[in-house]
Structure formats: structure tokens, C-alpha cells
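Appendix C reproduces, verbatim, an entry submitted by the partner laboratory led by Prof. M.T., so that reviewers can inspect both the input and the predicted structure.
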Amino acid sequence: MSLELWLVYLAAAVGLSLTPGPNGLLALTHGARYGLQPTIWTVLGGAFGFLLLIAASLAGLGALLATSGTAFAAAKWAGAAYLIYLGVRLWRSPAPVVLAHASGLPEGGAARPLRLFGDGLFVAVSNPKALLFFAAFLPQFMVAGASFASQFLFLGGTFVVVEVVYELLLAGLAGRIAPWLGRHGRIFNRAAGGTFVGIGAALVTTSR
């Protein structure tokens, strides 16, 4: 890939990451609830999920979902169900405690890294529209004759690095509102949870 083409792709990746989506909302939510350090696991899970989607798109699964109504419907319903589950779980969560010290861990307990990683991963892979988008977007920057490994390295690596930086910024800024959450945490949980449920419900109505 030429430098000029890569710079165009980098600009496009930044624009895509700045578009509001479920993983950005999740990073913001976990950053506010748990602090920046634990939320790194959430962001890493999302990054791994995006790498899987990009690899699948490059391998042709995006084209399969675009042509197979059954495959798309199955992915759509599974993704919607998980997002709604995540929203209900957040809606019912108690108000987050105020961060007590600079390490970023909430007073009275720590979030489980594996669960945070899993949340980020499954939110990233649960939307078949993202797979279709990558399937339509990535070919515009693919170089004919280049190996799968090199395409994956440049296209996947660039997008994921941009997304990780963006989500970490969201998580870091969210931590500053922790004192406010100590007073109004249930409102925050219900607003974020309701948004996840809304995204899941909207996903059910999407078509190819």
C-alpha cells in the first residue's frame, strides 16, 4: 500500500471511529463505572472483535451475509439479543461508587478483566451491519495481488489502533464524572442501558 493511499485510509478510519457506536458507548460506560485502567480490558476486547470482523470481511464472510438472508437474519438476531441483554444488565446495576484512588479501581471491589474483555468483544462482533460495512469499505483500499497477511496488517491494524485510541480517550474522560455518578449513578445506568436496548431493537429492524 502506498503512503498516499494509507493516509486516505487513515483519515477514513478516524472518521469512522468518531461516528457514535456501541463500542464507544461501552467504553464510556465502563470508564465512568470502573475507571480507565480496568476499561483497558473492555477496549482490548473490542479491538480483538474488530480484528475478527476485518479478517472475516477480507475472507469473504461479508459477501456471504450480503447474499444469504438466513445467515444475515441469524447474525442480526444474535447480535440484537446480546445488546439488549447488556442494556438490561446495566439498567439493573447499582449506582457505581466514586473512584477512591489514582489506580482507577473503584472502592469496594474491582471489575473482572475477563468479563470486561468479553463485553467489548461481543459488542464488537454482535452487529452484522459492521461486517457488511467492512466488506463494502475495505475493498476500496485493497491492493490487487497483495497477500492476505499484508492487507490484514495494514487495513486491520490501522483501524484498530485508531479505534483503541478513541475508546481510551472516551474512557479517560468518563472517569472525571465519577463524583457525579456517586449522586446520580442510577440515572446514568438507565440512560446507557436504555441506549443499548434501543440499539439492539434497531438492529432487529435492519435489512441487508
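The longest helix spans residues 148-174. Additional entries are available on request from the coordinating office.
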